[in-house]
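Issue 218. Parser rejects a valid record. Input:
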Amino acid sequence: MPSGAAEMIRPLGDSKFEVPSGKLDEDTVYQVCMDLGMCTCQSGQQGAFCKHQVLVHHRHGGNFPNAPVVTAKDRHQLGLLALRG
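Output the parser choked on:
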């Protein structure tokens, strides 16, 4: 994810967020729904816990039904992955 991507997350209400694409040259945004554990990106549409969901989880907390159970160290590493790509 590009530097500053977490600050570009936009809450849409009802546990939904708009998240920027991980590509610097794209204006693409994806919608993440925490309640359903879904994202409109290709991986998220397949039910995977994608990097956009990781970024929302890192920035806003909360539970995702498709999120793996992780330790504090795992959460830290997921956050680094989301923020640094």
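Fixed in the parser; the record now loads. The radius of gyration is 12 Å.
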